[in-house]
Amino acid sequence: MKIASIQARAIDCGFQTQKLQTSRVASPMSRWPQFGENRSSWMWPSKKVFVRIESDDGLVGWSCTNGGEVVALIVQAHLSRLIEGTAVTDIADVWDQMFNSLLPSGHSGFSMMAVAAVDIALWDLQCKTRGVSLVAALGGGASDLPVYCTTQQPKPFSGGGWWGLKAATPYGPGAGEQGLRANVDYVGSFRDASGPDGRIMLDSFMAWDADYTLRFAQEAAQHDLYWIEDPLPPYDMEGLHKLKSGLGGSTRLALGNFSFNRWDCAALIREGLADVLQPDVAWAGGITECLRILDMAKAAEVPVILHNTCEQPWALALAAAKQSDPVVEFVDRGKGSSLYGLMGDAPVFKNGRVVVPTDTTGNQPPEAILNQFADHDATKLLKEV
């Protein structure tokens, strides 16, 4: 069985309207006043990218990632012509072809989102060919998993049995002493909601520097932060070493949201910087590459918590089948957000745990997404993205 066609489509699913985008959340751009009030004012192309791969016997594999029109164009204009006609079972070889073909233009960011989207859709197609769920194809695993919740409103999640609660920090260094105090108080609201023994974490989305992070950690010490996530850009290895030394193990460093392949992750592990590694399956090369990352982290005894897990059924399957003590992430998008069910049913939570999908029908977008692909041939799609 061979790959007959590949289509990619960038579709607005309301990402820019959800609360994390429209509220004040610190970011690499918040130092400029015109971009500090909300992420949607500057965020990269935010449409979701759906990839549809059809085999020559009519089966269809699906996936979804970020990156909007840029990633859709990479898939449609470049990757599709490389791998149409390839055997569906040659996923690892296809991955290597895609990665190496993109080396002249990049090996992270949008390029790896595109690779991830094709890879995930190929896994889905192979599972459908075999008539098994992804978690079964990966060796089987737990039926449900413990979840931590990323939210801006901790009170509604108090007492819900969650593994932990994570805040998205509102302010960066440019907000001065007043912003620092507001950040500390904000984390305090998470401590109040979780109780004295609950885990609380903080994501500062590359908005800080080493000195500010250490100052914040000192001021917030009474709240017993479990980790600080991505306080610095991933290229600032010197700053991360300064943090690792200055924190002295009192607060963990969770890194890797913006590590887009095994080599990025290997650097964090090799340098002893990541207390928790957090790659995103739909960004970091897909299932094939994340299997390699999980093996590498396991050998180094570095725990992995896959980023934004509960919106990605393939990430839940990976955690269930390939991790001995998995924890996954749920991002609070607001009640009824369409982002919860882009590849099937929305995740089901009970007492802070999420059910692992085991449906052998695999990834299946809702009808509104399927309609976007109806009667669109590859040439027309390319013009539209």
Walk me through what this model shows.
The protein is α/β, with parallel strands linked by helices. The protein has two domains: 3-132 and 366-384, 2-Layer Sandwich (Enolase-like, domain 1); 137-355, Enolase-like C-terminal domain (TIM Barrel, Alpha-Beta Barrel). Helix content is 39%, strand content 15%. It has 14 helices and twelve strands. The chain has helices at 19-22, 33-36, 68-83, 91-102, 109-130, 134-137, 176-194, 210-219, 237-247, 262-270, 286-300, 313-322, 367-373, 378-384; strands at residues 3-11, 48-55, 60-65, 144-150, 164-168, 199-203, 227-229, 252-255, 276-277, 328-331, 349-350, 353-355. Strands 4, 5, 6, 7, 8, 9, 10, 11 and 12 form a nine-stranded mixed beta sheet that branches. The longest helix has 22 residues, at 109-130. The radius of gyration is 20 Å and the shape is globular.
Strand and helix layout:
Layout: E1 3-11, H1 19-22, H2 33-36, E2 48-55, E3 60-65, H3 68-83, H4 91-102, H5 109-130, H6 134-137, E4 144-150, E5 164-168, H7 176-194, E6 199-203, H8 210-219, E7 227-229, H9 237-247, E8 252-255, H10 262-270, E9 276-277, H11 286-300, H12 313-322, E10 328-331, E11 349-350, E12 353-355, H13 367-373, H14 378-384
Parallel strand pairs: 4-5, 4-10, 5-6, 6-7, 7-8, 8-9
Antiparallel strand pairs: 1-2, 2-3, 4-12, 11-12
Keywords: Magnesium, Metal-binding
GO molecular function: hydro-lyase activity; magnesium ion binding
Domain Mandelate racemase/muconate lactonizing enzyme C-terminal: 110-250
Largest sheet: 9 strands, mixed
Distance between the termini: 29 Å
Annotated CATH architecture of the largest domain? Alpha-Beta Barrel
H/I helix tally: 14
The structural domain count equals 2
| Average pLDDT for all residues | 95
Number of strands: 12
Helix fraction by DSSP (H/I, runs of at least 4): 25-40%
Give the overall form. globular
Reading the helices and strands in chain order gives EHHEEHHHHEEHEHEHEHEHHEEEHH
At the first level of CATH, the class of the largest domain is: Alpha Beta
CATH homologous superfamily identity of the largest domain? Enolase-like C-terminal domain
Computed structural class: alpha/beta
Q: Which radius of gyration do the C-alpha atoms yield?
A: 20 Å
Low-confidence stretches: 378-385
GO molecular function, one term: magnesium ion binding
Keywords: Magnesium, Metal-binding
Domain Mandelate racemase/muconate lactonizing enzyme C-terminal: 110-250
Cofactor: Mg(2+)
